[in-house]
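> Could you send the Deoxyribonuclease NucA/NucB domain-containing protein prediction when you get a chance?

Sure thing. Input:
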Amino acid sequence: MHLRSRVAGGMAALAFIVGIIFAPYAGASPVQPGAWTQRYTSYTPLEVPEIGSSAYAWQRKAATIVPAQGARPRTLATDAQVAEEQRRLGEHVIFDPEAPEVKASTRAMDDGDADLEACKTTPGAADPGGKYGDSWNWCHRIFGTAVWGEGEKIVGTVTWTTVSTATTNNGTRSFKVKTKPYDIKPKGKYTGKSHLSSYLRVDSGEIPCTINDSQNPATLTLDEWEVPRAYGIYTVTCPTGGHELVDDRQMANFSIAQIVPDGPLATWGWLFYNVARTDSASYLSTKQGSSFPLVAMVIAQRTTGTSYNGVSQHIKEFYQQNPQGDGNYYDLVARPDAAFPLMRNYAKWGDDESAQVERDNTNAKNRECAALPPHQPDEQCDEYPFNSTINGGGSGKAFSVKYINGTENSKGGFFLADAYSKLRILHLDSFWVKAD
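Output:
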């Protein structure tokens, strides 16, 4: 089953819950908690108190733990701001044209639980920011604890781990979020008949996105959550129209909270904080889609075995000859001091500056190409960085021109346009290029 969900009834008897979460959330909880403030823990299992031990002593110990800091969303930003944020996150994915998942123009959002099962053992998923598997998939794993106190004594505990995944889509203005608690261990007054609720919150500004599929909050007993294929599934769809930018882009900040509502004084704990972006970019081959704007996109240009080898070889030579990049400036992990991104420029954005950038790039390319030695009739003059970026020849920074096979040059342009579309690289988005 996907989820036999229902909203929990009467919460007059509530428990206090301590969950390991991504960051404290400033907004209101879906159900107002009692007077006891939520406690935040680290990303390792919190010490679980013994049944019959002092509730006050455990609360004081839990209250001293400092919450983790979450990622900040962004809209349009400078390349320096984007680079700083992406280096801080330390997360990047590589777009490889030979990878099977990028061959189709549309990525299906699987309704099964294979991604949740894989997330249970994915390295890095327990980090505060979760783990991006590729350009379309993200997963997160976290440990939770709820404690039931009566008077001065603890009479019940329950621990569990939750995996959550998010999948974007190259074809619709929607993304999918799934979540499943597992390895649930109740003790004392908590039993398999106790309940756990999961709530998805989406903040998207003045134009709300809709949440479909599972009830929200979704509530099952602890035993029901442990059943295979029992999980919460939510499709978030952001509407078209009403946005100021040409490509109708919209940021959707999303998070999942959980609560074990049995016992006195329960409160919601936020598991993570992430952001997706939807757009209707008519200048991409796929006119609508969603993406993760906080992950650094790296386009892999293979120098052998492709129809555009000459383009990739030219890029590799540029890296090797450019002392500023030292041949590795696309590597965000090995060379963060030298890692600077390219930034997409769409010349028909509607402002004078974007059109002027393309004119300056083209003029610089033509001037330098004319100074090259004579070339063969089937060759074309290639440039790098690309004409469709603010980093081209018109920027006044290092760039390269070279005559290469005309067919390979054209194929390289088709590949770049395909990468822009599949990765949803919009106007003024940052990206990196790797040439092997």
